[in-house]
Amino acid sequence: MKNVLRKVGVIVIPPLVYLLMRIIWFTSKKKFHFITPIGDEQHVCVCWHGELFMSPQAYRHIHKKHAASAIISQHFDGALIANTLNLLGIRPLRGSSKRGAKKVLLQAFKSIKSGEEVLITPDGPRGPRHSMSDGAIGIALKSKLPIFVMNFKTDTFWQFSSWDKFVIPKPFTTVDFYIQSISLEGLDLEEAKTYLSAKMLEYTVI
After folding, report:
1. 120: which DSSP letter?
2. What tens-digit pLDDT sequence spans the chain (206 residues)?
3. DSSP string of 131-198?
4. Is the CB of residue 97 less than 8 Å from the CB of residue 121?
5. 57 within 8 A of 126, measured Cβ to Cβ
6. What is the pLDDT of residue 124?
7. Which residues contact 195 (CB under 8 A, 6 or more apart)?
8. DSSP string computed for 64-104
9. Which of 18, 12, 43, 19 is closest to 144 using CA atoms?
């Protein structure tokens, strides 16, 4: 019975979540702060797991037609996220650092080679919150691409008690998006992780 409910859930829930996302998007007042310019240059794109409600929409607003894929875990909640992002025109790559890591990394590099941008949550899929895994850094360093960082802050919001403290802005609130392009050139893995983490924590809901 549990499997049946999950199969139904991955079909029914994502369109409802997508609808709520778009309602919040269109009813909110949005301000975009470009800390550095973001052009059409290909990036590896990152946001915190707890900011997935708004950041992919900001990405699609800025890069309306850029081909994109996202690394999403193979868990049930990952399936919900994957099917929701599909509705934003972001293709899911299923896997994580713990499950299907090698396969999903190969898929990511193949996507990058084809010209796609790859979206990753450095603290996903299970945290700890605002931790920095090797995945996004490793992909950016090996592909020699800059990182497109998406963060937001909002005046009023709901915040879940989940590990990622998932944030949903309330309708008609003001949402400030902070967008920046970061180069990791010349940094080793640990230096890059420290640097990117500091940049991402500058503009986020703590």
Report:
1. E
2. 777 778 788 889 999 999 999 999 999 999 999 999 998 899 999 999 999 999 999 999 999 999 999 999 888 888 999 999 999 999 999 876 566 678 888 999 999 999 999 999 999 888 999 999 998 999 999 999 999 999 999 999 999 999 999 999 999 999 999 999 999 999 999 999 999 999 999 999 87
3. ---HHHHHHHHHHT--EEEEEEEESSEEE-SSTT--EEEPTT-EEEEEEEEE--TT--HHHHHHHHHH
4. no
5. no
6. 84
7. 182, 184, 187
8. SS--EEEEE-SSHHHHHHHHHHHTTTEEEEE--SSSSHHHH
9. 43
Query: Length of the chain in residues, anyone?
Result: 206
Q: Which of 165, 71, 152 is nearest to 119 (CA)?
A: 71
- Following DSSP, what letter does each residue of 187-203 receive, concatenated? --HHHHHHHHHHHHHTT
> Does an H or E element contain 49, and which?
none
How far is 158 from 54, CA to CA, in rounded Å?
A: 13
CA 162 from centroid of its chain's CA atoms? 17
**Token output for 6:** 């999950």
